[in-house]
Design a protein that fits this description.
mainly alpha, Growth Hormone, Chain: A, two-stranded antiparallel ribbon, 2 strands, transmembrane transporter activity, transmembrane helix, transmembrane, MFS
Length: 431
């Protein structure tokens, strides 16, 4: 008797799954390269952590605020129809920013280009997760396989975050201080073009619903009824569904820790004369996260998604405390990064699963994009805060920020857990 295939093997048996998964992975390379690439380039050009951190934060923040609006367009008009135009604009603007940095144009002009580059970004992660939900719709084991699919995407995110920082640091220190800004442009253009060409796996646009048309004139006075017509449903914002907003708030707060850690470790290793190894050091966190994603996608953990999120955040907070204590022992720091990173991808997958349970299918891309937005806003704030703190107090003070941020996220997640339990209790009483 042959063993049952793994859930990952079952996923890739779905028609078109390999193509949209791989192409979306390539297109996501900018999320791991642009922020660090900006910090490395700007600090090299101007030797100022505040300028570097603030410009990186401006890029991330602008990307964050437009992501949900792009997502609503994708839900409303379809991924290919919107994506082809949006990707073209994104490629041109990102190339303009990279070229401007290479030519060392004045800082205000470079800030303007960074803002424009941020405003051109949309979430490939939300798009590919929506495709998984559509591909698995009606499958006999839909919930279990969707858990696996979202864990897989979190693992891919982490692989991107392993490759991206290493590549960015290598290019910045060994090739040219701004060369790392051009690679994300090529990756997004190539991966995005393939992704949007895959029409067979594209989810349909917002589902039409039948409504009664209002009667007027003689027909209305005679009491005749109008025929039923199909009209697109007017969907409210995904942020307004119960549970979504608190997930977004939690993601804002705890994501501040990641960019604060990245920038602070970069500063610490530069002070130690080891800047060329910063990408490898940061990648250890992503290695642990990738391992955690693979396990999370293969094992069914007991408890609600909210309960798991509280647990993961508490573990991550303890990990960041240990990072601060081991900041000058890089091998030990790398080991601790791998161990603490085991909960990172599961935490992101858990947040996406909470949103999947909270919003209707027609608003799924937007709901998932709000999670991305929360993370991006947090990343922006963390990068900016770290830059200021580093200039004021150095790496030792900067590495205190991550555990302070995640520590603040724990009670927020606990509040979300309590709110979810109360909703379930009310629904049980009503039924």
């Amino acid at each position: 008797m042959s063993a049952a295939p793994s859930p990952y093997a079952r996923l890739f048996r779905l028609p078109g799954a390999k193509a949209f998964c791989v192409s979306a992975a390539v297109a996501r390379l900018p999320i791991s390269m642009m922020s660090l690439g900006i910090v490395l380039a700007l600090n090299h050009l101007y030797d100022n952590w505040t300028v570097a951190g603030t410009m990186s934060a401006s890029y991330i923040f602008c990307a964050a605020i437009v992501t949900p609006f792009y997502a609503r367009l994708f839900d409303r008009f379809g991924q290919r129809r919107v994506g082809v135009v949006a990707l073209g604009v994104q490629t041109v603007v990102m190339l303009g920013f990279a070229t401007g940095a290479a030519l060392r144009i004045p800082i205000p002009a470079l800030f303007a280009l960074a803002v424009m580059a941020g405003l051109s970004q949309f979430s490939f992660g939300a798009l590919v997760r929506t495709r998984w939900a559509y591909a698995l719709r009606g499958h006999g084991d839909e919930d279990s396989l969707l858990n696996t699919a979202y864990a897989l995407e979190s693992a891919i995110d982490e692989i991107v975050f392993i490759v991206g920082p290493i590549l960015a640091a290598f290019l910045a220190t060994s090739v040219n201080p701004v060369s790392q800004l051009f690679v994300p442009v090529i990756a997004a253009a190539t991966g995005g073009t393939v992704f949007f060409s895959l029409k067979g796996t594209q989810p349909p646009v917002m589902t039409p619903v039948a409504v009664e048309a209002a009667q007027s004139g003689a027909a209305g006075r005679s009491g005749a009824r109008s025929p039923r017509i199909n009209a697109p449903a007017r969907a409210k914002s995904a942020l307004l569904y119960p549970g979504v907003w608190i997930v977004v708030v939690v993601f804002v707060v705890f994501n501040m820790s990641f960019t604060a850690f990245d920038v602070s470790v970069t500063a610490n290793m530069k002070a130690m004369g080891l800047e060329q190894f910063v990408g490898l050091q940061l990648a250890m966190f992503a290695v642990g996260s990738c391992m955690g994603a693979i396990v999370f996608g293969s094992v069914r953990f007991p408890g609600s998604h909210w309960k798991l999120m509280v647990l993961f955040l508490a573990i991550l907070t303890g990990g960041f405390v240990l990072f601060r204590l081991a900041m000058n022992h890089l091998i030990l720091l790398g080991v601790l990064e791998i161990l603490a990173g085991l909960v990172v991808s599961p935490m992101f997958a858990t947040g996406n699963l909470i949103v999947k349970e909270s919003v209707p299918a027609r608003s799924l891309t937007e709901g998932l994009a709000w999670v991305t937005t929360g993370g991006s806003v947090g990343a922006s704030l963390g990068s900016s805060a770290a830059g200021v703190v580093l200039d004021a107090g150095g790496p030792a003070m900067g590495l205190m920020l991550p555990f302070l941020f995640t520590g603040c996220a724990v009670p927020l997640a606990f509040a979300g857990w309590l709110m979810a339990r109360r909703r379930v209790a009310r629904q049980s009483l009503q039924s």
